[in-house]
């Protein structure tokens, strides 16, 4: 046994920091919020750093230390405080919230590869929405194959991608400030005064806070790997603190550097999708390097997003099934290969990712799809982050029951209030974030995005309430449904989704009402078919 322990391969805290870094922040995250808020985002990042990022990371550190033997991360934390069912539902909602994130990461790889090979955004004009969707779907298949065939691929990609992205970001910020001095202090953002950085805390501002939260959350996604650290109770918090420092540098100085090259008052419409490339091209031209920096960044981004996709596909699926009891999770989803890979969980992940891609296929162009997916992340992801603060509050309410070597804020009452404050802010940002961004308010596209936002949330979260019922049928009858029942229900669901998406893309005045009625009828018929006792022929 001692020999086995000695031979075990541990994940060091710097490696875990880089694994968390690729799931938390990147130059693109800065770009997204720069387009939403302009130079005022610098103040937002400072506020987020001290009032959100650091407390958030340290709370995760304490929770990771307490529940260091759980395999499901966040679901383990909630299960440890509130029991089996809430632990299961936490695992499901967290997994469901990761679906748009996975699709967005796969989309970014397509964008990255296009720039890496062509050095231009023009290739995007030659790709239809359907081709973009198919290429994204292909990314899932490729990375599932990689993770199945190549051991430690996730750690390798994370180390390379995370380190390269941090280096490129530091290089960009350094060159941006050198370029600012070289140009005599000239900035594209004019006028630039202290007032330029002061946000107007109106309703529009608060609808973009969800995207800020989405940009900095995700550190808890690496919690399932805490058991693979040599000293998890001390090394995990250390990794989270290092993550916060890296995040601070990237967000604050990165945002200012963007203002040097982009006019914050008049930004390109495709800044979220292509802004990182525009800025590296501008830096390269300023320093006489041509397109060299652009190509280097493009390949860096390929590895970075590949690492992110690898971590997400593996970690989110393991989080769903590895620490979820058989009382609520259907048996077929808990099936693993001889190598321990949750193959059916991967299939479900890819299937729901395809569903999300289908919702966006009727948007006008590739840029609209890209922006919509980002905004969908800004709704779902912060909503699920609420579980972290809820779990922290439960722990600090009865701290004697949950001892930990690492404690964030020794006073339990103050710690509880800190968790409550972050819970309220995150919940409000989630609700306000459902309003579509980057499109004209109350236009046809605005209404369509609002409809598919609601459909996506209902389907992704609602499916989690159905699975325990399927598991009960497995226990009672041996199988959940007969082959005939599966065929009828799947046909109804797929047909209903396609019809609802089609109606959402029309200009019918009462399309919202038609979608609601049709969806209710489809669900009612599914319920009638599914409640019957399964009888195999």
Per the principal axes of the C-alpha atoms, what is the gross shape? globular
Low-confidence parts, pLDDT < 50 over ≥5 residues? 1-7
The CATH superfamily bears the name Amino acid/polyamine transporter I
Decide which structural class fits the backbone.
Answer: mainly alpha
> Distance between the terminal alpha carbons, to the nearest Å?
51 Å
- Reported by name, the CATH topology is Amino acid/polyamine transporter I
CATH class: Mainly Alpha
Order of helices and strands: HHHHHHHHHHHHHHHHHHH
| Rg computed from alpha carbons, rounded to a whole number of angstroms | 23 Å
Main sheet makeup? none
| Overall mean pLDDT | 81
Strand content: under 5%
Strand element count: 0
Gist of the model:
The chain crosses the membrane at residues 12-32, 44-67, 127-146, 158-181, 205-227, 239-262, 294-313, 343-363, 369-393, 414-434, 446-466, 486-505, 511-530. The protein has helices spanning 2-7, 13-24, 27-37, 41-66, 74-82, 84-118, 129-149, 153-182, 203-207, 209-216, 232-261, 271-286, 292-321, 343-360, 366-397, 412-432, 444-477, 483-504, 511-530.
Describe it for me?
It is a multi-pass membrane protein. It is found in: Cell membrane. It comes from Lactobacillus jensenii. The chain crosses the membrane at residues 12-32, 44-67, 127-146, 158-181, 205-227, 239-262, 294-313, 343-363, 369-393, 414-434, 446-466, 486-505, 511-530. Helix 3 (27-37) packs antiparallel against helix 10, helix 6 packs across helix 7 and helix 6 (84-118) packs antiparallel against helix 13. This protein has helices at 2-7, 13-24, 27-37, 41-66, 74-82, 84-118, 129-149, 153-182, 203-207, 209-216, 232-261, 271-286, 292-321, 343-360, 366-397, 412-432, 444-477, 483-504, 511-530. It has a single domain (13-453), classed as Amino acid/polyamine transporter I. 72% of the residues lie in helices and 0% in strands. With 537 residues, the protein is mainly α.
């Amino acid at each position: 046994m001692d020999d086995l322990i000695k031979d075990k391969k541990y994940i060091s805290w710097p490696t875990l920091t880089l694994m968390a870094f690729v799931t938390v922040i990147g130059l693109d995250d800065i770009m997204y919020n720069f387009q939403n808020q302009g130079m005022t985002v610098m103040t937002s990042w400072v506020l987020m750093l001290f009032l959100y990022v650091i407390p958030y990371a340290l709370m995760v550190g304490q929770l990771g230390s307490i529940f260091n033997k759980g395999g499901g991360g966040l679901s383990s934390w909630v299960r440890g405080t509130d029991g089996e069912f809430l632990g299961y539902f936490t695992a499901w909602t967290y997994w469901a919230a990761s679906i748009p994130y996975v699709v967005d990461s796969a989309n970014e790889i397509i964008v990255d590869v296009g720039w890496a090979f062509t050095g231009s955004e023009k290739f995007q004009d030659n790709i239809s929405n359907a081709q973009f969707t198919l290429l994204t779907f292909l990314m899932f298949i490729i990375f599932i194959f990689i993770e199945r065939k190549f051991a430690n691929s996730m750690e390798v990609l994370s180390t390379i991608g995370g380190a390269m992205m941090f280096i490129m970001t530091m290089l960009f910020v350094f060159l941006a400030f050198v370029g600012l001095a070289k140009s005599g202090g000239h900035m594209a953002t004019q006028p630039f005064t202290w007032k330029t950085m002061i946000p107007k805390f109106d309703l529009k501002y608060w609808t973009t806070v969800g995207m800020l939260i989405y940009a900095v959350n995700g550190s808890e996604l690496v919690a399932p790997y805490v058991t693979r650290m040599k000293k998890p109770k001390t090394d995990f918090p250390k990794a989270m603190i290092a993550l916060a420092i890296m995040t601070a540098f990237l967000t604050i100085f990165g945002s200012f550097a963007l203002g040097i090259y982009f006019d914050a008052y008049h930004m390109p419409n495709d800044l979220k999708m292509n802004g990182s490339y525009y800025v590296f091209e501008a830096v390269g031209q300023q320093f006489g390097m041509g397109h060299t920096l652009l190509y280097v960044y493009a390949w860096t981004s390929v590895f970075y997003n590949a690492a992110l996709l690898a971590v997400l596909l593996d970690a989110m699926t393991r989080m769903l099934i590895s620490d979820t009891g058989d009382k609520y999770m259907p048996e077929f989803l808990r099936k693993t290969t001889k190598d321990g890979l949750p193959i059916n969980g991967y299939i479900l992940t890819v299937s729901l990712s395809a569903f999300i891609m289908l919702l966006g296929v009727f948007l006008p162009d590739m840029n609209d799809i890209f922006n919509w997916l980002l905004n969908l992340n800004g709704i779902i992801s912060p909503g699920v982050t609420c579980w972290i603060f809820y779990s922290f509050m439960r722990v600090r309410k009865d701290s004697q029951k949950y001892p930990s070597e690492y404690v964030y804020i020794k006073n339990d009452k103050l710690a509880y209030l800190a968790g409550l404050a972050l819970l309220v802010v995150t919940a409000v940002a989630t609700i306000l974030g459902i309003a579509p961004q980057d499109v004209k308010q109350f236009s046809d596209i605005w209404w369509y995005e609002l409809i598919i936002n609601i459909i996506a949330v209902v389907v992704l979260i609602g499916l989690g309430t159905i699975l325990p019922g399927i598991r009960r049928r497995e226990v009672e009858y041996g199988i959940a449904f007969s082959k005939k029942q599966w065929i009828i229900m799947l046909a109804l669901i797929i047909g209903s989704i396609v019809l609802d998406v089609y109606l959402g893309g029309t200009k019918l005045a009462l399309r919202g009402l038609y979608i609601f009625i049709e969806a209710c009828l489809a669900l009612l018929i599914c319920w009638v078919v599914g409640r019957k006792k399964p009888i195999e022929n």
